[in-house]
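Q: what sequence does this backbone want?
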């Protein structure tokens, strides 16, 4: 059954993602803007809905496992594609974490290469702190007043 064969009432009962599934099945890969424009046209929604809801629509597509974002920026049904055609969306925070990890690994490698093992295993400093605490005496306020 074509998406155009559905009545407006039947389409209103479907979610945006379900309509997207039917559109992609019928027409093939499409970009976010074209998909959502078709949905707003089919549902006869005002133009301000397109402008205010397209971000939410995009987020719903990214979380739904039925759809994949292809390398060319279009969406399609996941079952039509093998994993080598799927674009990987990398969060900005993930990139920063990977950069920090790579820098730390490089720093450790450079320290090992230079022979700076003192910074890596410095147990002597830790033991010195324990020695300082052995001489620590805890006094009450009354005892402090007596000494003064």
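A:
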């Amino acid at each position: 059954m074509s998406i155009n064969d559905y009545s407006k009432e039947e389409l209103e009962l479907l979610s945006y993602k379900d309509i997207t599934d039917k559109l992609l099945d019928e027409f093939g890969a499409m970009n976010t803007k074209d998909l959502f424009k078709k949905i707003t046209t089919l549902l006869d929604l005002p133009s301000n809905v397109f402008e205010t809801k397209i971000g939410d629509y995009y987020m719903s597509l990214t979380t739904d496992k039925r759809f994949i974002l292809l390398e060319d920026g279009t969406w399609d049904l996941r079952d039509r594609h093998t994993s080598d055609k799927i674009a990987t969306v990398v969060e900005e925070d993930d990139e920063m974490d990977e950069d920090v990890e790579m820098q730390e690994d490089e720093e450790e490698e450079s320290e090992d290469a230079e022979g700076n093992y003192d910074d890596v295993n410095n147990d002597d400093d830790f033991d010195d702190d324990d020695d300082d605490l052995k001489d620590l005496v805890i006094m009450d306020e009354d005892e402090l007043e007596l000494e003064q």
